[in-house]
Every structure is written in C-alpha cells, then in structure tokens.
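Reading group handout, session on sequence-to-structure problems. Before we discuss, look at one worked example. The prompt was deliberately terse, the way you'd type it at a terminal:

> structure Concanavalin A-like lectin/glucanase

The input record follows.
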Amino acid sequence: MLSPQSFIYAITGLLGLLASGAAARSAEHLNVQVDLSFGHDGHHVWTDDHRHVTGWTMDGDQYGHHPELLSDRVILTPPWPGNKRASAWADWPEMDEHWTVNSEFRVSGPEHASANFNIWYVSDKHLVESSSIYTVGKFDGLAIVMDQYHHGGSIRGFLNDGTISYKDHHHVDSLPFGHCTYSFRNTGQWANLELRQTEHDFEVLVDGHRCFQTKKVKVHPGHYFGLTAASSEPPDSIEVKNFIVKGPAHNAHDPSHDATDHAHHAADYYNPSHYQSASHHDPVHHDAIHGAPPPKYEHHEHHKDSRDQYDGKDWYWVDEKEHIKDHESGYYNNEKERFGDLHDRMQLLNHQMDLLYHDFSVFKDTAEDKQRELTSWLAPIHEYVSINKVMLERMEATIEELKSQVSGKEFKEHLEGLSHLVAESHATLMAGIPNSVHSMVSSNSPRFGFFVFVIVASQVMLLGSYIVYRRRQDAAPKKYL
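And the output record:
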C-alpha cells in the first residue's frame, strides 16, 4: 500500500506530465502584433491621409501603377488594365520564433484571366520587391504562392536559403515543399489563409482546413513579411482585406524581447524550486487558481476574480503563489504539519483536475459543434447523391425500353424494300442519263451543213460582185490620147 507521501509524489508527477501538454497550449496563445498587421482592429486600413498603411510600405511597378488603398482593403492589382505588379512590405521584421499569420484576400476577374499572389517571409525584402516566385532571384526565406497552377488554383510553399535563383531555374514548379488544390477565383467571398510556425511544425490552413503541414520546416526570426501580386492579360484583381500577425505581447521591432519571455515551458510548471512551504502558505492563495473551478469553489472571492480574468483564453496553470515546495519527510515536526501539507497538495490537485475537466468539456463542445457543422455540410451532398440516383434509374429504364423496342422488331423487310428502291433508282439513272445527254447535245450543237452553206454562199456572192464590177468598168467610156 502506498504511503500518503508516495501517493502525493505520484500524483504530482502525473500533473507534471499533464503540464507538458498544458504548457504547449499556453505557448500558442499569441497576441496581435500591431506593428506588423493591418486591418486587425476593424477600423480603416489606411491612415488619416488615406495614402499609407501604418507599419507597411506600398509600392507599384515602373509604369506608374500603385496599389489602391480603400478604407477596408488594399487593391494590389486593378481589374483593368493588365500586366501590373504591386507589393506591400512590413517596415519591421518579425523577431519571434513562433507566430501565426491570418490574411483574407479575394481574386476576381474574367473567365480566362489569371494572376499570381505571393506571401513572403524573407531576410532581405529588397531582393524580392514586387517579384513573383517565377521572377525572383536568390532570396533567403519562405514564399507562399497562390496562382492557377494545374488550371484549378493551388496554394504552394517554397523555401530558399539564398543559393537558388528561381528566375534562372529550369523548372520552378518542381521546388515546392508542400501544396494543395484550392479554387479561390471568383468565389465572391474572402478567402482566409493562415500560416502557423510553432515549435514543432509549420502549417498552412485555408478557410479553416489544413492545406499542408510539415515538421521539417522552421524559418528563423528576423525576417520581413511581404505581399506581392502580378496580373496577366486579361487581368485578375487581387484585394487584401487584412494581414494579421500574432506573436508574444511585445513590439515586433524591439529585438530586446524574446518569445521565451512570454511563453512557458513544460519544465517551468513542474519544478520543485517553485513550491512554497505549507506552513507559510496563505489558504486564500490556495484557492486563487488561474482556472475555471466548479461553483463549489466560487466562495473564494480572489479565485472568482481569477476565473473571470482568464475566461476565453488558452490553457493556464498555477501561479507562483500556489506552488508548494517539496521537503524531506523529516522536515515536518508533527502530524498537523504533515496533514496541512497533504491537505494543500490534495486541494491543489483537486483544482487542477477541475481545470482538466473544464478543458475536456470545452473540447467536447467544440467536437460537437464540428460534428454539427460536418453534418450540415454532408446534408446537401446526400441530397445531391439521391437526385443523381433517381436520374440514373430513369436513364436505365429508358435504355431498357429502347433495347426492348429494338430487339422486338424485324427489320429484314424494311432493309429489302430499301435495297429494291435503291436498285430501281440506279436502273432509272443508267437508262435515262445517256438519252438525256444525247438529246441535249444534238439540240444545242451547231449543224455542219448550215456551216458549209454559209461558206459557199459567201463565196458565190463575192464572185458575183467581182463580175459586176468588171462589166461596169469595161462599159465605161474611155479616153485615148
């Protein structure tokens, strides 16, 4: 049978393992980095002069095109004319190792139009400027490309360490480390693209669904976020509603802060040096859990305030006031101190189990919501399948009816009659055509006798005329000298 002290140590070790998962979730709680974001607060994208975006630099191409700023969006490439380029780059680098990017964009245009939209995370933005993945040279960083690759629209991820010149590469389409098919043109809605760089992996999601994920990619801090767009002829219009970067709660351009100052590691939640002695521990502090206990613990006013303070946030653990320092068994002088230490530890364990129960309840509700959402998605598909089934049954019945009609009739008589009719037509043509041709030739061709008569008559007339002429000349008076 385990002693109370061994039982406490076993439970504490279990809590340490649970704390590892809790710490990972706590590290994922990131705040909006205002200096690297726009459109995040629901207000206007532009500044008061309507010409700039705070923390960002907008640039166009060499032919005078410049991105158009509206109150709620940035139009990188216009609906007309085509062959335009534009870019938007953050003025400050991202100094955190773990971050999340959310961006809503929309692409629209005529039927055969196309465009290229890129999200960059590079060390030197001047090497990219307004280039696309096909026209950029050597760059160090990450590129997420949205274009009409494979004729249906796709999202692809590219990496470069500064050694590959993409514009000189013979086959750029063979270089992505991840991709997914996504039709984003002319949807009429804003597409939501999310990039996640965590401690363990890099993930790209679109409209809440995973596009691709890899554990082999980890980009370094100190890089710049940027957007570039290029349209063809006929063009697509590319609009960006927002670009929201989330990270630890400090200024993105202040390198003195580090992400580790704002995210706890699992070891920090289970460290004997963080505990305090039970004999010097305030009972009110035992109840001041940063958690979500059931109503039976809400009689502690300080604990209730902490519950309200952390509502809606990610996983949290005990603070320093609730940590109990470990001691040897000989540290306690009497049974009262031992019982007090056991009471404090069991109470802390109970509070942490309440936290776990609360989190599992939230997970259960989320799973049920996802299930209802999935069911709502599957209902139209089921209806569509039922309609197709009915149509196939009707088509099958029509084919069977046609087959029965064809197999039940005798076509030999019809074929013999048709053959006899063709033979009669052939005989009629063979007998009538020669006679018709002979009659036409004989009736319309000139007669040879008439031709000879005309020649002889003309000769006789000519001879008669000559004779008359000679006689008149002989009968005329003559003068002799």
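Points for discussion. First: Residues 335-407 form the longest helix (73 residues). Second: Residues 4-21+263-376 form one domain.
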